[in-house]
Write a structure and sequence with these properties.
The complex is a heterodimer. Chain A is an alpha+beta fold. Chain A has three domains: 15-70, no CATH class; 82-117; 121-275, Rod shape-determining protein MreC, domain 1 (Thrombin, subunit H, Beta Barrel). Chain A is 32% helix and 25% strand. In chain A, a hairpin with a 4-residue loop joins β4 and β5. Chain A is globular. Chain B has one domain (17-168). Chain B is globular. The two termini of chain B are 20 Å apart. Classes of the chains: A alpha+beta, B mainly alpha.
């Protein structure tokens, strides 16, 4: 038996009325969020209130991984050390070549009077958790507006592009992975120079190129890198490798690719600072409505 | 004691202490904390939605104490934590609390297996509501693994019933029969 008794006289509106009220408020919130992207401040406020809880919830995992670090064997440590040394040697040689090429490139640009390409400063961020929302592919990183994060910034790891920041809060930000359904990245085939756009499919480990002619010069195993024409991603970052080509579709080939970066197997990422200011879109300036290419607008079918 | 009478000994032969509001709040925060624990992909999709289960527990067993607004507030918190649409969890949890309060007499009467069936139905309904909201907002339908968290949530119900009632039981005097 429960000790609490029902009040003898009913107070307040009926249960059904209250359900109707809360449903109405919720639906209003959903519509405001989907259609107009209002309420971002309210979301940010709730996010700050949630932050201590998230920190506490992440403790067991952090403790577990630290325990794992403690119990690694001497042999595996020395093997990893050996491998890191070899990698450092290789990347050291590569970066020396890069510096020489950059200097040469700058000189050549000066000769032809082209604008210099400014570098981008990186920020290292840690992934706090993968979003539980089964409809999107997002991760949350521990850098926010307090660390100069902005929406649209590209996020990479040591192998290639991971995605893009799509929502910032004071202390954390949400990164949409390139496999998310709303993410598309302009790419270029390294081997043949063919340009295209990768579209996320909404599940892990796959993106696709759409609307490619059947005779486009793309082969299985080709590496796709960012082309940089969006002004958001710097050119030349590895994005995906072509895994399968279905030429039997009516007029366009379906080209399946696998992301190069470890989209779900990493915990440290690098956020690149924004690129150079671009001149204003002439069509937008003329008063026409043009969707900005840099911002990740959700596509409607 | 058969498995079906799992909660019965608590129901029938003793009167429980009245519930403090603080206790309800602490259990809800605990459930939120459990939901926020970062886990790898497939594990997190199989994990029960602890907040939904605890909300359902309180709306069934304290139908006159908790109304719909705690469900709504917890829903908003989950929306921000999950990066889902603002109001999606809130609406679903309100419907869940409504179902819990509406059916609370019936669910309390039933043996455990029937209780679990009711809980499973309500949890699935709550998830289906979220699915409808997302599909209306043009999201890709998820795989069938999506509904596994309702199954695990319903499987958790007997444990939740026993554990949450522990602090409300009177300590028996040793001289009593």
């Amino acid at each position: 038996m429960q000790a609490s008794a029902a009040p003898i006289f009913k107070r307040g509106p009926s249960l059904l009325t209250r359900l109707a009220f809360f449903s109405l408020v919720s639906i209003t919130l959903i519509v405001a969020d989907v259609r107009f992207r209002y309420l971002e401040e309210m979301r940010a406020g709730v996010s700050v209130a949630l932050y201590p809880l998230q920190e506490v919830a992440a403790l067991p995992g952090a403790l577990f991984s630290r325990m794992g670090d403690f119990f690694v064997t001497q042999a595996s440590l020395s093997r990893e050390n050996e491998q890191l040394k070899r990698e450092r040697l290789l990347s050291g040689a590569a970066s020396q070549r890069l510096r020489a090429l950059e200097a040469e490139n700058e000189q050549l640009r000066r000769i032809v009077n082209a604008e210099p390409v400014p570098g981008r400063s990186p920020t290292v961020a840690e992934i706090l958790y993968e979003s539980r929302d089964p409809f999107t592919r997002k991760v949350v990183i521990d850098r926010g507006t307090m660390h100069d994060m902005k929406t649209g910034l590209p996020v990479v790891d040591h192998r290639g592009v991971i995605g893009q920041i799509t929502r910032v809060f004071p202390l954390v930000s949400e990164v949409s992975l390139l496999t998310d359904k709303s993410q598309s990245i302009p790419v270029q085939n390294v081997r043949s120079g063919v340009r295209s756009i990768t579209f996320g499919l909404g599940h892990d480990g796959a993106v696709e190129l759409r609307f490619m002619p059947v005779n486009a010069d793309i082969q299985v195993g080709d590496l796709l890198v960012t082309s940089g024409i969006d002004g958001t991603f710097p050119p030349g970052l590895p994005v995906a490798k072509v895994t399968r080509i279905d030429p039997n579709a009516a007029s366009f080939a379906r080209i399946h690719c696998a992301p190069v970066a470890g989209v779900s197997s990493f915990n440290r990422v690098v956020v690149l600072s924004p690129g150079p200011e671009r001149p204003e879109n002439p069509l937008a300036a003329a008063g026409k409505t043009v969707a900005p290419t840099a911002s990740p607008t959700p596509r409607k079918p | 004691m058969s498995w079906n009478s799992l909660g019965d000994n608590i129901h029938d032969d003793e009167i429980l202490l009245p519930v403090r509001g603080g206790y309800i709040l602490v259990t809800m925060l605990g459930a939120l904390l459990l939901n926020l624990i970062p886990l790898p992909g497939w594990v997190s999709s199989a994990m029960p939605d602890f907040v939904a289960v605890i909300l359902l527990y309180w709306s069934v067993f304290q139908a006159h104490r908790v109304g719909l607004w705690p469900a709504w507030v917890m829903g908003l918190l989950m929306d921000v934590a999950d990066a889902s649409l603002f109001g999606q969890h809130a609406a679903a949890y309100c419907a869940l609390a409504f179902a819990g309060i509406f059916l609370h007499r019936r669910i309390q009467m039933f043996p455990m297996s029937y209780q679990i069936a009711h809980v499973l139905g309500i949890l699935l309904g709550q998830q289906a509501l979220q699915l409808v909201v997302r599909l209306a907002a043009s999201a890709e339908p998820p795989d069938m693994l999506y509904f596994v968290s309702s199954l695990t949530g319903a499987a958790l119900w007997p444990a939740v019933v026993v554990i949450l009632m522990l602090p409300m039981r009177r300590s028996r005097h040793p001289n009593e029969v």
